[in-house]
Amino acid sequence: MSSENNSITIVTIDNRANKGIKNQIINTTSEMIYQAIDKDVLEQNLRECINNIGSVLNNVNKEMDNYNLDEVEVSLQIDATGSVNLIGGLSAGVTGGITLKFKRRQ
User: What is the pLDDT of residues 25-46, one digit of tens each?
Assistant: First the structure.
């Protein structure tokens, strides 16, 4: 957390120097960047992403006749602007994020 009450600090990797290097996450030319993000912006973006994922899961579950979708785990990335993105596959420069586990209510 940042020392400011209304922001959260995230750490990102600047891989601009690594554009031509395949399958490399971090090397000696990468720089760690600390970026303060307004917590209200992050909260709004996270809420919107979670609502969209919930909507997709509800629709998928309705189409499954003989099975119940009990649990889904998704990984999200937060970038330096506070955008929240679903990680579809790891690519160079994606080193971490947050994982959300959705479990059906009993």
Answer: 555 556 778 889 999 999 999 9
